[in-house]
Amino acid sequence: MPHAEMIEHKYHLQDSKSVAWLWLTLKSRAKAATQLPLYYDADPIAGAIEVNFDKASGVKRVSIAVVAGVTAVGQEDVRFLEISRDVWNAKTTPPPAKAAGRQLWQFSLALPSEISMPGQRKTLSTMYKLPPSFSERASPVYIDYRVVATVHRGLFKSNQTLSTGLVFLPVSRSEAPPPLREAAYRDGTALIGPDGDPEGWNVLPPAKFTGALFNTRQVELQCVVAVAKPLSFARGSAIPLFVTISSTDEQALDLLASPGAVKIYLIRYRVLGTHATEDKYSDHSSHVFHERVGAAYFWPSTERASGDRVRMMQGELNVEVSSKPSFIFPEFSLRYKLALFPPHAPGFSSKLTADKPLVVEEVTVTTAEAAGVYSRSYAPPGYMQPVDPDYNNTVGYLENGNQRFMHHGGHGGI
């Protein structure tokens, strides 16, 4: 973003007579000065500090810092980042050392792309990418980044700070699609399914289930889900899907191989504590929170299914543009899975648990598409994304900020 488009944010601290004496100015990518400052991973945290020394006695030094931590509700903050430097120090200031009037200093702090974090045994360290800010109402955990200006007064005198939360959003890109799908996106042609493009699809293990049809007879069906490769998708894009359903019962096929009967959801997982960096975690753990954040929708495929008594449907699942990107970090990770749930159709009943998935596949949600790739929706005109009653819509990082952590405070310490 060109420098001219950067938004300027201004904060100040007042004395007991409501006269401002400490000012902090930041420049960021936010759309408005009233929003929290927004930075991507390569952006410097740049701005200025100004102090009126006539209103501040006994100042020894002035510093600027960027701090970040993971905070679980009811627990102490686990700080993972602290970058600080002095902008003024009485000991190193050339004569005359006595400061007076209003003085201003520019600053620029660079955030690292990765940091070293200790392992579970506290002996081995692992490098992790800096996680994005995370703050949602009623969330059991938060990731908070803050800029803190501190006026240090020396021994036996309290320091004074002026701070603001900021939004840090590392840019992540989805992997490039296989050649045939990329060509379809580019040329506006139909997607080739898993039969014609086996390298372009990840075919999940078949899900077999039985049930009663109109309470008169038992039927058996098999459902196979194919997800477009690679399994990383940008927010605001559609996840392409193909579903193949087979059965020896034609009536069961007519009933269950229909767009409204197939239930595939995108599930978001917030994994807390020591299991946050592990590949395997229990959905039922007290440290794992999950919710549906997207539902797939389907339409009859134009491709002919291979074999008799087999139906194929094409579909997609829209990743909300407000979705938080996937990340793995000690104490808190955010992950996503596609999950096939038991079908639902009038006249069909089974002993399957409705909220227990039959097949799951982990996917990655990124902030941007692969370079040069512009995916598109293939839904026929008139097809709309379904509204699921259990859909938990997580709004964007600015609209749903938790003010307990995202304050513009000017009276507390770090």
Automatic annotation (TrEMBL):
InterPro entries with a match to the protein in the record: Ig_E-set
Protein name per Swiss-Prot or TrEMBL: Arrestin-like N-terminal domain-containing protein
Gene source species: Fibroporia radiculosa
